[in-house]
User: What shape does this take?
Amino acid sequence: MVVCGDDALAYRLARELAGLYGEEVTVLVPSLRRGYGPWIAALADDSDGLVEVLEVPGYDDAALLDAGVDRATALALTSEDDQENIHLALRARRLNPDVRLVVRLFKRKLGRRLEDLLDRAVSARLPGLDRRSLAATTTVLSDADTAAPALVAAAVAGVSKTVQADGMLLRAVERPASEAGVQPALCTLALMSAPAAVTEGGDLEGDGDSDPSDATDTTGVTAHSDHPRLLPADAVVAAADPDRRVIVLETITRDEPRTTPPVRLPGAFPLGSFFSRRLRAAIAGLAAVVVLFALLTWKITGKPFLEATHLALLDVFAIGDPALDEEPERRILQLLSALSGMLLLPLLLAVVLESYGTFRAASGLRRPPRGTADHVVLVGLGRIGTRVLDRLHALGIPVVCVERDQNARGIALARSLKVPVLVADATEEGVLEAARIGRSRALLALTSNDSINLETALYARECNPVLRVVLRLFDDRFAATVNQALRESYPDALTRSRSVSALAAPSFAGAMMGRHVLGAVAVERGVLLIAAMDVGGCPELEGRTIAEAFRPGAWRVLALDLSSPDDRQPDLATTPHTGSRHLGTGLEWNLHPGHVLGPQDRVLLAATRRGLGLLQSACADPGTPAPERSGA
Assistant: This one.
């Protein structure tokens, strides 16, 4: 395996491939002293020789060949620069047409076209190969798209972790153990550690980086009673203390009607920003002066009032004829009118220009109205914040954004959606108050700087002690310390941390291993993966019944793909054609425990990262016996 990049995702991905799947990984980094180079170098020292790091001045053909791309199984391109990743993908495809490419791209449409382009390139060089067999040779993923559902779910009350499959939404929700078998659900994903750990202020989901693997390890032996038990057996759940909590998986069909229509924050077209208070005062002052001089002109000249008003306007604007042949009072009044106009007109022009600038800014970026409430305050409109804003708006949840860079990626999206944006530093005094943080439902601190996210969260907690806070934090130890300190300081408030790279790494690693991971469900500091897998060639699945294929603590079959292999979609996360009689259009969820899995089947399963690695090893080497099963 080859990974090109020196960012957080490259570090997590290399650790995932080596530590979980036992793969040999070569990481290309531009420097071992900058960015995440030192982290990756330390990973190489602790991986028992599985990780090799090459420092290269640039990603060219020579560097790719030094890393062994010409003989590699898979190549991941994790740079945040889309153009650089596309360039490297084209180079790698030319050097090795058989390499499995996993490319990180932010733009969805460009990603789909790149997949098609690279697969066509292989078909052109290997004309006898069916293109349908190349569906997984190029996979374009976005860490922002992968992490956004978890971030949104953590921030929005009543909305749990969601994963899309076959055009439907799978939702992980938390319930008391006593209700696990009462309310309908697909399966139980986890039995939480203890009632004391499940409090109103607890963090049930963490950032998903660590893998405690369950209270039972892959052999079914109880490891630690204070750890959550992932994918427990039904008998274990039934015998659990009713006060304990479980996380179950539910489905939401795409035809399910919305309970509430999309909501937008109130506010009309910002004409009031143009007619500012200063402009209105200046116009009122000018009108008062004109009326005064019109009355004086009417009194002195004895002309009709309309004609006197016309003369007064000409005098104020200094465009009337000089009153040389008229009485002294008229000439003095004309001089005073001209002098008043000279003083007022520049002031009026300055106020107009100021109001015009305010109008342009207000027409582009809206500020939160005074009545804004029950909204989400989103800090940071970079790659991640942009996707989170898009999902929150699609859910009809009011949002107020704070971004200090007016050229940030998400500013254009916020403008098009008419979402209020404060262009300011969220850590400055008064900024969060202007975002109406005191009446908001949650804060999402999603900048790329852990310190800024923490400072923003602490400032928000001072303004609203019971606010739900979601932090984007990379370092696991730092995140655990922050979570514990915030929970102890604010026991009545929810604090949750997320690492974008940790949420995205399992999907990238699964794609490199030839497995399509649809999403991740975070459970405390562990994570469960929802993945699609072909049954053929996997002795742990092929020829076994649904009940026999279930290994507690490792994996569990959720659904069976009913489509034929010729018509099978490579990406189960997409929405297929409508018209099926099943809950999904291509997946059967209500599987009989005695149904036998055949070699032509494809299943959707929930697995721990360790369990998915065991399945991968069993598929790669069918002769290798898997660890002994246990019903625990």
Remarks:
- The two ends are 35 Å apart (CA to CA).
